[in-house]
Structures are given as C-alpha cells and as structure tokens.
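Lab notebook page, bench 4
Experiment: in silico fold of construct C2
Operator: M.H.
Input chain length: 281 residues
Purpose: comparison with the prior construct
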Amino acid sequence: MKSRKLIAAAVAASLIAAPAGWAQQAPPEAQPPAAQDGEVQPRFIWGILINYAISKLSSIVWDIFAGYLQNKLTGGLTSTTGVITQGIISGLVGSSGARLAPRSSVAVAARGADIVVGTPETPLSLSNGKENYQGAHVALILANADGKTFSVRPINDGFKTGERFKLRIVSTFGGELTIENINPHGERRQIYPAGTDQIVSLQPGKETVVPLGEDQFFEFARATGREQLVVNLADPRAVGPAASTNKVYRQDQKYGSNFVQEVTPSTYPHISQAIELQHAN
C-alpha cells in the first residue's frame, strides 16, 4: 500500500488500488408544456421525467429528490453495505466528469446558509421550466475491514479516528466543491483540493467520489478534541446577492444525507455542511 499526505499533521490519506467502471444515465432534453393547477402531466424536474401535479404539499420535495437519486446512486436507495467495490470506486472516479480546476469565484469560500433538519416550508413548483429548489446528496463511503468493499453512512453519523473514507456527492446543479478542516483549536483551512486556488468542478447529476484519485482516501488520526470536516458546495454564480440566503433543509437516510435549498431565477444554491469526527479514547 502506498501513502501520501492529503491533510497534513493529524490527517493522512491512505492510498489503495481500485480498478473497473461505472456508467451514468444521460438526462432527458425536452420540456413538456406547463400543467394547469391540479392537472397531472409528464414534467421534467431536475432532468428526470415524472408525473407532476401542482401541489400545496412541501413534503413532495423529498419524494421527488429521492426519485431523482434512485438511478444515480450506486446500489440505489436501499443497499448501504457490501455493494460498493473497489472497481465501482475506480469507475466513478473515471466517469463522473469531475476534475480539479482553478477557483472561478468566491462562492465556496463564503459561509453557506443555515441548515435545518426537516421538511421545506415552500412547496415545489415550476416556473418557465425552472424548479424553485436545487439539491445535493452527500454520503460517507467507508472502507470495510476486508479492504474490498465499502459501506455507506449519512453525514449525521460522523466518522471515527482511523476510518478511511471518501465522500459521495450528487447535485442537481453544476457546482464547485471544497473540503475544509476545523481542528480542535478552531482553526479552519482548506484541505481538498490541497491548493486554495483550486476547487473540484462537479457535473450536474453525476455521482462523484472525492478525493478524486481512485487510490486516495481521507483518514484522520493522532488527534484529540472536537474536529470537523466541512463540505462546501456552491453554484459558481452564487456570489454576493446572487447567493440564495434561504435555509438549506437536510434529510438523513441510510444511503446518505440529502439537501435542498429554495432558489429564485436570480439566485443560486450554496450548501455548507460540517461532519463531526469522533476521536477514539
């Protein structure tokens, strides 16, 4: 096994080989005519075709987002252990379209809106073919003891000292991603990508795992006290007044954690979520 630093000092990245491939589903292209109130019609939401009726229920946001994820996540929404192999990890790295790129904006450097665990207050709607919510999925992909398979964990479960893991991310929008560390002294710094002038550029609707190197994993070790990993994901246009200030709603499931944020035609999503590290005694 090779080894190289990703996070310095208390944080190391273990590197293992991982072969194989994974295909992604192309989104539909056309948008059907708008439906009248209460009328059920086929509609495209986040690029998937559904039977949609204008509704006063805000809970439909989670249902439709889960449907959006069903065909995009390895193992779907039901399997959480023993399904993700080294081969699949390697394929995801090669097929997601994600890449390291120069930072194009200050969006991912700014603090995101408040996160609330619960159901969004405003119902899902469409205006001129545009959804009033954008969403993202984040999960921990942890290496099992056999070194050949990986388990899925929602972010509210956190992770422990010595666990090797990647982050799995899918977003409805093209985003810029950075990972930060807040150490027990409250010091905050970007740890991935290593250069603060870089971000990870994500393609909408593509299952991505980071670190992007197929043989790279995050691993925290040799530290005590409260420590956090912070996931920052933003549309590169979410700068200044163009950044949505609406609450980000989170729903934790066995297959990972889902986020949605209400946006307008002139604002863009910005999600920032901390994940707790549980140090071994």
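Observations: Residues 2-20+33-278 form one domain. The longest helix spans residues 60-70.
Next step: discuss at group meeting.
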